[in-house]
Amino acid sequence: MYPLLDHDDFTKSRKALMATAAFLLLVDHLQIVGESVAIAGLTFKLDKNAVIGFGSLFLLYFAYVFIVRAIEQSMSARLAEVREEIDRLIRDVRGVIEAEALSIKRIEFENRIGGTLDKLKETTRLLSRFTLLSVEVGPPLLLALYTAYAVGAPSAIASFIRVS
Fold first, then answer.
1. Is the separation of the CB atoms in 27 and 48 below 8 Å?
2. In this structure, what are the phi and psi dihedrals at residue 44, rounded to the nearest 5 degrees?
3. Residue boundaries of the structural domains of the chain
């Protein structure tokens, strides 16, 4: 993919959003002379509104990705802070509770903290799965389904199969 449109982390998604927005602003301010472009003998009719509409779809997509990546980054940073705090608390408690008489309380405390760490790990896994499904899987599938519908793919496939 073109480097400016790569969006697999927060920084890249921000760049993709900015590049798409800049492109749309540029196209919106272009003065188009004539209605068609000829390339290698093929003539293409140019419609500024269609280009802006198509680019706007990408703008919406990259805005969505940027928002999800921002939430992911914020949550990941907060989860890392919580985990550090819990680890620091465990080290402090282990230092204080070294006496044999308090070992039962230490084991109980470690079990309770272990459960909290397990919940934290599960939350992190859920956040990663949500990001994967909502950014990497969902939008391309929705775009493919819409495109198949918009271009009449089912009837084209049926016609192609019958002709062959």
1. yes
2. -115, 130
3. 3-144
